[in-house]
Design a protein that fits this description.
The chain is an alpha+beta fold and 166 residues long. Helix content is 28%, strand content 25%.
Length: 166
């Protein structure tokens, strides 16, 4: 191998090492920026701030202090109708229930966060105010589930809540 070719190989190796170092530096800069750019609270911190027992009372409707009513949109889909009894005038049915309303107390637009919505599972659903749904002439009702209720809550950044249950 000549001196010229060994110098070329060293220069190529140095150039590749330099490019690798630049790529690594660029990668580390991006990684650092993405880790530090989210100055807002984490999902868990945000949920705990919003549903803090001293600030949020789930036994009161959203507009209770102002005296305004809370509009609730109700969607109902009957998926199964069985056990009809003409004699007792009763039946069993399985249905999906979806409720939508806005609770200004849960508005998190003021927080510096990238979240547009939060998904709240069974362990947190009970901490949110949920409207009482009343079926006239019902004899018995129950939420379906094996060991826990079959329900889910989406909390959007403006305080809009979408509750789904079965």
């Amino acid at each position: 191998m000549s001196v010229q070719s060994s110098l070329t190989i060293i220069m190529l190796l140095d150039k590749r090492r330099c490019m690798a170092e630049k790529n690594l530096t660029f990668f580390l800069c991006i990684l650092t920026a993405s880790a530090t750019s989210g100055e807002g609270p984490t999902r868990s911190e945000l949920v705990h701030k919003l549903l803090n027992d001293t600030q949020y009372d789930n036994s009161l409707p959203p507009e209770y202090s102002t005296g305004n009513v809370t509009n609730v949109s109700v969607q109902l889909a009957i998926t199964d109708l069985d056990s009809e009894s003409d004699i007792n005038m009763e039946y069993d049915c399985t249905l999906y229930l979806r409720l939508n309303w806005t609770d200004g107390r849960l508005d998190f637009t003021a927080y510096n966060t990238s979240y547009k919505r939060l998904i709240l599972g069974n362990n947190i659903v009970d901490k949110v105010w949920i409207p009482d749904l009343f079926f006239y002439s019902q004899r018995k009702s129950e939420m379906q589930g094996l060991s826990t209720k079959n329900q889910l809550v989406y909390l959007f950044e403006n305080g809009t809540i979408m509750y789904s249950g079965r």
